[in-house]
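Whiteboard transcription, Tuesday session. T.W. wrote the structure tokens on the left side:
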């Protein structure tokens, strides 16, 4: 039996294209319930191992979906969601439909960007001042932002931002201005990503 590996949930027209998918598959397509669709590829297991290669493929497929047909909004799933039947997957779509609708409305036309600000080793930095400067520059442009773990004592700030596609250039320019303002700090600016940090929808057991 072929199972379905889920990348995320979209609204509207089905998606289908050829690509390097998880577990060596070569295409992704949509399993739909009403207007909601789970973008999937085939897989032989419901408990896939998270290799570096497949984790990268998962993220790459999400980026392709975000760019597909002029840009699509997708509620991303974490790596490893697989179901043994289309029926089980459609049951999940039906049961979680209100939550998916809310999530899609929240992230429609937006993606996630990340910014880490790192101080040089042995450098003295006024953290509050830097945080305030970054917030003043970026918060008015972003729709939302959330803090991430400060996993190193050299991290001054670490945040994810939900940004409208139309505001991407403005946000890029604001980050560039910050880099010039704080030339003694390193700015690690990443994305765009599927907006993992701004959705919180559980899609049930893998069965």
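and on the right, the sequence the group agreed on:
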């Amino acid at each position: 039996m072929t199972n379905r590996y889920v990348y995320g949930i979209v609204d509207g027209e089905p998606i289908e294209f050829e690509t390097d998918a998880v577990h060596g598959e070569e295409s992704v397509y949509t399993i739909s319930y009403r207007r909601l669709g789970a973008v999937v590829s085939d897989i032989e297991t419901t408990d896939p191992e998270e290799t570096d290669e497949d984790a990268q493929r998962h993220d790459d497929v999400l980026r392709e979906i975000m760019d597909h047909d002029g840009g699509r909004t997708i509620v991303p799933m974490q790596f490893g969601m697989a179901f043994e039947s289309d029926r089980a997957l459609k049951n999940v779509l039906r049961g979680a439909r209100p939550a998916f609708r809310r999530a899609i409305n929240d992230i429609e036309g937006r993606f996630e960007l990340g910014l880490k600000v790192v101080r040089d080793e042995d450098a003295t930095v006024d953290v509050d001042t830097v945080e305030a400067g970054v917030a003043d520059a970026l918060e008015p442009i972003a729709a939302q932002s959330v803090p991430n773990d400060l996993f190193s004592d050299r991290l001054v700030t670490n945040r994810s931002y939900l940004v409208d596609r139309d505001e991407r250039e403005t946000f890029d320019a604001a980050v560039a201005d910050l880099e010039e303002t704080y030339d003694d700090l390193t700015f690690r600016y990443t994305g765009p990503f599927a907006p993992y940090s701004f959705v919180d929808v559980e899609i049930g057991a893998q069965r």
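Someone added at the bottom: Strands lie at 3-11, 17-18, 27-33, 36-43, 75-76, 82-83, 110-119, 144-147, 155-164, 185-193.
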